[in-house]
User: Fold Probable butyrate:acetyl-CoA coenzyme A-transferase from Megasphaera hexanoica.
Amino acid sequence: MYKQKLTTPEQAVTLVKDGDWVDYGMTTSQPVLLDKALAGRKDELHDIKVRETMSLFPRQVCECDPDCDTFTVMNWHLSGYDRKLAAQSRMFFNPMCFRNEPSIYRNIIDVDVAMITVAPMDKHGYFNFGLCAAVTEAITKKAKKVIVEVNPHMPRCLGGRGEAIHISDVDAIVEAPDVPVPTIPFVLGNDIDQKIASYIVEAIPDGATLQLGIGGLPNSVGAMIAKSDLKDLGVHTEMLVDAFYLMAKEGRLTNKVKNLNRDKGVFAFALGSQDLYDWVDDNPALATFPIDYVNDPAVIGQIDNFISINSCIEVDLYGQVSAESMGTHQISGSGGQLDFTDGAYRSRGGKSIIAMHATHTDKKTGTVTSNISPILKAGTTVTDPRSQTHWIATEYGMVNLMGKSTWQRAEALIGLAHPDFRDELIKEADKMHIWRKSNKR
Assistant:
């Protein structure tokens, strides 16, 4: 069957017809050779819609078609590359909560052709989805045609469930022996990140199960945990990052006391350094699952002392959080932040922590603005509604907003703002009728 279905990228993409919806999957599961071959058909195809998530390298269907004459590309979560294209109307954003994405594929949208990077076939005829189980099974099950791009460098990640596809469900196979699996470096945050991390680490008990987001601040938290004296930590996270590898290396991460999937570190996709990929490869201490399991608040809530740590762009005095846009300018996406904000709150002893710098400095003008604002900027997306916001952390401390009235929230959040902006925030809170004549901090 393998020999019968093995073909060239150019021949494989002839499965794509005019008007088709084509899915690339996300991050490391996106194809390289197939993308290039599909781009090569620009002048002979019409109205091809491509969905993908978080490009880690330039997409040739975008590069070859700057005016979107043939290819309309949509994205569930923007990378830096995607963000620039979206700002030029060369890529369009798909809003969603990450936990819902598999059901959106199953129940709502169509896929004509799926093109997915996979690990080599095993002796049972299965291609492992490698570093990205998240939504891949849902995409391939919905697709009318499935093309796999076999990459021998892709780690084999054990399930769980939903981590592989059988050759009988594959229509064409393309081999990519010389394509590297994309990596991102592990970069620690600056001194402000370290300060915020110190508050967060103090709030983590022994035996906690952790979820970390992406970026310098969560990386700083993870590195600090690795060097702490915390014991028997667990992992249940949508994105497995290098911070968890560091914790395991230092003996902090054992998964021994989790009351769900004990002895297994659970994740939906992994993205990081080659050291991380070597750690996850064929590792029975880890289990990958689809995102509608990993990010389900009902699942997360079953795990005691669940600590969710994510970052954001802006918080207003009502406690509304934006982690994805500045006005109408889309920065990234909702991802799973709301999933874990809800789930961690349901956990006995759990905490959802949204962390950010108190201020932002414009790189072009040098202007400093407060990341805690009276109201979110016009057009800004609310990632976490005020009713779901739990803990907020800046370099000035951490506060729990759950259960607080509007004036209590305003007072607590102003206490987390940079001192230079507090008086103005108090004035605005007073105008908004959410300021009580209480002690100014």
